[in-house]
Specification:
mainly alpha, about 25% helix, about 5% strand, binds iron/sulfur cluster
């Protein structure tokens, strides 16, 4: 079955700013031992270059589906996202 994308969130693509993973670690990160904020699995050094180690290394293969990774940004107005887009 084809997954239906959100019309709203899908209009704000993820630009790998890292904001959401710094603010609150997802349940899957917590289950794997990460801290509540500034997730230990977030890798990268600046907005636009962050990524998730659990995704990259396929440590938890279902994470993309469970967190809707690729479906758009859940925090579209944050400052780090604007930095990644060169808007600030
Ligand atoms: S805040 Fe949005 S753009 Fe930034 S990493 Fe999270 S989903 Fe992607
Ligand atoms: S486990 Fe990955 S997706 Fe979840 S908060 Fe950490 S870096 Fe983000």
């Amino acid at each position: 079955m084809k997954k239906k994308k959100s019309a709203f969130w899908g209009s704000f693509p993820c630009v790998k700013c890292g904001y959401c993973c710094k603010k609150a670690t997802c349940d899957i990160g917590l289950t794997h031992g990460a801290n509540q904020t500034n997730c230990d699995f977030l890798i990268g050094t600046k907005p636009g270059e962050y990524s998730c180690l659990l995704v990259n290394k396929k440590i938890y293969p279902q994470i993309k589906m469970h967190l809707a990774i690729g479906d758009g940004c859940c925090e579209p107005l944050n400052t780090d996202r604007k930095l990644a887009l060169g808007m600030l």
